[in-house]
Design a protein that fits this description.
Order of helices and strands: HHEEEEEE
Shape: globular
CATH topology of the largest domain: OB fold (Dihydrolipoamide Acetyltransferase, E2P)
Number of domains: 2
Strand content: 25-35%
Radius of gyration: 17 Å
């Protein structure tokens, strides 16, 4: 499921759960947006920069993958291909459904992502 579909699905679930219809939809959407923001803030507290956690690969793309982080089913970590350098080296990235150990690299406020890495960051010599 794409990220856009996940967000849309969450909104539809929220509207169904609240029974919002017509003019009440705007209030329900605003409440849903507030809930999403609170979940992001909670996830950042549970997964501070530098912390290590486990997760499961949920979406795999040529540029990286999206990892469902343990303890935060609504928090998705983004692992870009340049941040994947396991020790010992692996020939390929993990498949969807495979568990991985990751380290939180930073919180990308603009994209509202928790960026994670596997292995040591690349360093210039």
């Amino acid at each position: 499921m794409t990220e856009r579909r996940c967000v849309a699905s969450g909104l539809v679930d929220h509207l169904d759960h609240t029974g919002a219809h017509g003019a009440a939809d705007a209030d329900a959407v605003e409440d849903w947006g507030d809930d999403m923001e609170n979940e992001r803030e909670d996830a950042k507290l549970r997964h501070p920069v530098g912390s290590r956690t486990h997760g499961v690969v949920r979406i795999r793309r040529p540029f990286g993958g999206f990892i469902e982080l343990d303890g935060s089913p609504d928090a998705i970590g983004f692992l870009d291909i340049a941040s994947y350098s396991p020790d010992p080296p692996a020939l390929d990235r993990p498949e969807v459904g495979v568990g991985v150990s990751v380290q939180v690299a930073f919180h990308d406020e603009q994209k509202r992502q928790i960026r994670v890495r596997v292995g040591e960051p690349f360093r210039r010599r």
